[in-house]
Protein 1
Amino acid sequence: MRKKKSVSGFQKKYLRYTIGLLLLALLLSSVGVWFYMRSNMLVIVTNQYAFLNEKMGISLDTLFQKADKVTEECILNDQVQQSLKAKPLEEVEKNSLSKYFAYINLDHVSEYCYVDNKQNLYTRSYSKIPYADFSESGFLTRLGDSYADTVWFVAEDTLFGTGKEALFIGRKVHSLDYAHEPGYLFLKMDSEFLDSIKEGGDSFTGEAAMGVMDGGGNICDSWFPASFSLTESTKRLLADYAVEEKNGVVLQGERVAEGMLFLYKQKQSGFSVFTIIPERVLTKGTGRIMMVLFSIYFLVIAIAVVLSVYFSNKITKPIKVLSRAMTEFDGNDFSHQVHLHTNTELDRIGNSYNKMLINIENLLTEIKDQQKELRTSELNMLINQINPHFLYNTLDTIYMLARINKEETTMKMIQALSKYLRLSLSKGNDIVTVADELENVRSYLQIQEIRNENLFTYTVDCEVEPEKTYVLKLILQPLVENAIKYGFREIYEGGIIAIRIYRDGGDLLLVVYNNGTPIEEDMAEKINALNEKPLSEAKKSFPNQKNGYGVVNVLTRLRLKYGDNVRYRYRAEEDGTTCIIRIPGGGVQNEE
């Protein structure tokens, strides 16, 4: 009974371990995939709706500027200015003025009301309004104390008698020639005026909640999905930001009860646009992917279980036969042999000792051949590697030969080159001390002084602690190379290169000045514009690897190391060119 239990347990353990490991692998991979997909989908959806909300905000800006320009044109109109003078307009002139306002160059104007400084009202022919009704409407108080600002407000339409809330655009109309009482212009806009803000975002209106608020935090137009509503806490948050004196993007991905909130405010009008991404939209894409993933996992598990049962039977059956034969062996009968016909490695167990030795010998031979091939590959790799110490020793040998021959210039040049190479390699480190960076550029300048005799002199002014301040290596050398190559190309002597390193607040500044030919304005502007471009576009600015390719290389390395806030600028002076690199927060040792 014990033997049977022991043998039958082998297959069960095999199945348990196999399926357990498979389930663990699938579980860990599904958790990892879920977190990865969730974070990536969240970033994609957030960026998509952030762009949409900012686009709506820009549309709101455009609407305000358009309305402001149109009302300004009304103020400057000759007929409008004539109406503000002491002499009343003739009936023909009044009709002409009414027609002017009727065809004002602004879309979605449903009604207009212009009041001159003699209490004459100009409206559409079918909307005769007494001055008393205008005075009692309370619209004048909406314009406040501003001299002639364009004011947007949402109010109950007591002026034109509809009694419904509507958007009004108002502005005081002053005489350009005389200090008279102003007139007043009010435009009533229909609902399609604000609808134009969401053009281009119609495809998202079924998923995201979008709306427009006035300066008091009141929602004057909205496009919400079905069954969507704002909680009181979100309404209070929107109202709080509506009254703040801000402009542009105010909230970018703020977490609220309904999901994620984006808010853009147009300061001049006081109006804001907002977009809320519901939680279901944020997780919708992840849910679909996980459903597909779990379906695949379920299929894999089912196939794995069936195959595990099948192969475990194939493996364990001959093992049971072999185990029974070995158990029945009494230690005396060496003629008892086991003959297995599985056409697998198990057949070899029953073969003779000599055949086993042959198999072991073949295996050892194979291992030796593999080790020999591995040693040969390693030796070839070592031969093909360049040993920098060989290069240093060779330079030292050339230096000693030059010293024996008393060739001072050659000695200086080799010594400078050796220092330059050692500092350039820096044991593979890309961050070095300012002291090492300055030593590197001095070595380069010494080589150039020997090469270009009497062409230039140089000075170094380091206002930071060079041994305790760190910087990306090989930054100054390309700047100095450009100064010699382009700044001094038209002179033969008297050149000056001035290097200065100092701090401005928390920023580290590296400045290289040369008194050669000033950089061309077009080239300076083109180089400086690279700061605002993505790296992919910046690399395309100088495709022929000339006239700026080195600049792009330096800028690319700086931005990859320090981020997009690093600044690299050229400035033409009256007597030369200045290059300035500003590294925000730069200089610390642990530059990740």
Protein 2
Amino acid sequence: MKLKYSLERMIETMKRRKLLFFSLIVATLAIGVVIGTVINRSVDAARPGFLSGANAIAIPSPTQLSSEFSKVAKIVEPAVVNINTESILKEQPRSRRRAPFGGQPYDDPFDFFERFFGGPMEGPGREMRSRALGSGFIVDKSGYILTNFHVVEKADKINVRLDSGEEYPAKVIGKDEGTDLAVIKIEAKKELAVAKLGNSDGVTQGDWVLAFGSPFGFEHTVTAGIISATGRNTVGSQWQRFLQTDAAINQGNSGGPLVNMAGEVIGVSTAIITPTGANAGVGFALPSNTAANVYNQLVKSGKVTRGAIGILMQSVDAKVLRSLGAADGKGVVVSKITSPDGPAAKAGLKQGDIIREIDGRKINDSYELSSVVAELSPGKTVNLKYLRDSKEHSTSLVIADRGKLIPEESAESTPEGEEETGRVKLGISVQSLTQQQAREFELRVDEGVIITNVQPGSVAEDAGLIRGDVILEVNRTPVRNPQELRDITTKLKSGTDVVFLVKRMDRSGEVRPLYFATTIP
């Protein structure tokens, strides 16, 4: 009985273990199915079909981009030159100093050494040699080279080294300080590699560019970057609207070409902004279109002739422009007609007109207008569009030679004006002009009122008016005395835009008409 019981118990135990084993297998398979489902769903969520409306982003390989840089370098490098200059400077003689407050003369501490070692004491100064370096590029196979004015400005000797290592003396053909450009020439007695100039008007922000030159004397240097901005006018003269780039430009790069990825020169490296003297990623190049215009004139006549239309202009903010009738807040205000016989006067332009276009080219600010007009040849007839009283007008205008267009202005002398003071609604105190003030501002004594005080936080201060300004007009209504100003301002209601025409004298003593605008609170 015991044996039978034990056998039955053993069989029962085996059945239970087999059942448990199969249960574990089933459970494992179930878990696997669940995990597989989860994983499968995760993969499905990343399938391209989910992003069917987007285009794949193509990233060029570094090798491909590097290859393009190399191709451009091989095209341009043969035309890039290194320029070394030598100038002879005369040192000013050092003499014994006068003691301050009229005492006895005293010796410079360095005079002791100069007496023994041959330094310049009293008498003529000695000559010193100054050397400088820069870059340039050949634009004509007969040896004409473009570079910067400041590279060759004071040079007595100019030496040019080609990409091949050959060296030649160079002579200056012409220089233009206004654009910081110069043309020099070498006699190589062979055809030279030439850099091709591109159209800088087609350059846009983000374009890849390469800068060539000899930074710190390291010849055959190429750096890469992009166009950071176009039309920069806060650096240099009024004739310069720069291309800004982060391609490394350093001392010695001046005059070198800035090139696009087609191997075309689209700029001449000219300046950098840096707190240390070394590249900080903010470099400036003069556009090739400006360079070509200057080059052609220098080669032809050795000088640059610029156009002019006979106005003073003012760049104002959009608020002032809208107040004067330009709904989009764009254009340049004519603040004064400088010559009664000039192009602007003959074309019918008046003070307060807003110039918008010249020959189809949009004009956004005074720097742009200056550079556009300057590049036009004297005698050329252009079509000019302008706004007057919010209405668009068009006129033909003949460009004049800036060098010959001299303003003809005279101040009319009248007896001393009666002083009248008073505070008006705008938060300013004004008085009539004295005879002396009228002469200084080139006005009559019955032409405008001078501001003697501006209240902090006032409407006038908000507009930008300051003590010493002479108010000529308010909303195009002439102001001849303080009473007329009060009469005008009492009619101004809250929310009304008000535009002031004033004359302001700067620190140099120059008087300029300016427009200011604000809104009556």
Protein 3
Amino acid sequence: MMNEFLQYLQYEKNYSSHTVLSYNTDLIQFCNFLNVTPDEFDPNSVNSQQIQQWILSLMSVDLSARTLSRKISTLKSFWHFLLSRRLSKHNPTLKIILPKTKKPIPAFFKENEMTAALDNSMKPDSFEYTRNRLILETFYLTGIRLSELLNIQDKDIDHSAGTIRVIGKRNKERIIPIDKSLINDIERYITLRNESIDIFEPNLFVRNNGKKMYPKMLYNIVHENMSEVSSLHKRSPHVLRHTFATSLLNGGADINAVKELLGHSSLSATQVYTHTSFEELYNIYKHAHPRAK
């Protein structure tokens, strides 16, 4: 029945393989705690006390409230599925309360750091450098996720309209406007790619051998390049996404518009960026207003 649940998440809910793997890991961990295999697992023999004991065992290894909350959510979702399929007669997760989690303020790169990272003066005009710089620029100017950038194909770029088509979480499509400078850089890269590589896959960004890039490679490109200009502890593609959102909000963009650009399903996911923006506004006020000094 666990396999049924995982297939339901993957094919009916359209969850990513990474998310499904997390659910699977949580369920196996719970089975291990009960000292049963997934095949031996009987949902009707589990009670709320056992779940509470499992939670206590997780707390003893100093898990964060966020991770703990996710693991509890896994069990809640699992039993909801079991009940909907009449595979369980009761729901022992009903009395289990999710711990409150404090959402961290997203880290973001400063404007001068991004300017330095994208500065192409005195740099080689090679395929690899041009590609890596365009990857940084695309993340920064569109706010797309790593998985979304990885799957962009040439046909997704509308050069005349100035838009890029991406497929987000749960296979949701969205169209993102891009400026002329990014269009020009994409066209320059495509020309260089076509000259440098004889046969390549339909993806916009490819490796030197023409094959599709992989997530760790994209992560390393961003991390290595941003390490040269920033001292932030996290220097990942997702921080570039945070930087995109924060820059828009600091520039006065409507939060609902930012939500659509990011592909968020709810406004609450976007509102976390307003904390950063308000901090920025406060710093501007503190340094500029005569009564605040």
